[in-house]
Design brief:
Blueprint (H helix, E strand, L loop, with lengths): L3 E6 L5 H12 L4 E3 L8 E8 L6 H4 L4 E9 L1 E3 L8 E4 L7 H12 L3 E3 L8 E2 L2 E2 H6 L10 E3 L1 E10 L2 E8 L5 H12 L3 E11 L2 E2 L6 H7 L1
Parallel strand pairs: 3-13
Antiparallel strand pairs: 1-3, 2-3, 4-12, 4-13, 5-6, 7-10, 8-9, 11-12, 13-14
Length: 216
Amino acid sequence: MQNIYNINKPKGWTSNDVVQKIKHHFHYKKVGHAGTLDPNAVGVLVIGFNEGTKLLSKLQTDDKEYIAEIQIGVETNTYDICGKCIARKPTSNITLHQIIEELTKLKQGDYWQVPPVYSAKRIQGKQLYKLAYSQQQIPVIKPQLVRLFDFQIIEFLDDILQVRLHVSKGFYIRSLAHDLGVQLDTGANLVNLKRTRSGEFTIENSISLEQLFSDN
């Protein structure tokens, strides 16, 4: 696609960091992205510039694939490893079979998922994470209808579940980790996340910011 970059977002950067870096480097008038990745996440971030920004709303509706590492037994306030631990439970009785059973239940059709409080989702025009960090009252977060199309267990070792996920637009992997922890009655949080595909854009065809800037 013209005026579209498939960027491999590095860890520690917000999606907006990438947008602003590209905008200032090339002096583009308009730059945006097709789906936020958390700072702790890496992988495919679709960037549109100038006329390409008109395509972003359509590209945001694409299905996506991830590789996630989920820690069973620890619950945090942000649903990921970056947050504060609020509960810890033993996991010695948790089996891979139980995990597969719970994920299979979620895969049986659309389900109502509540976005994390610490997220970029906007409610009443304000981003939730900004309200949370400023300790303002959080409006009621309405669940949204999402779908887990498929999953594949890669490994379950030392309470860390590594799983490949194919999901619909608007799906929060951190919320999936939290929901899985609730179902197992142990708590869980997202440790690492890599987006490997967004629509037709794959991690194999992505480029780093360093590559982009050195080639242009």
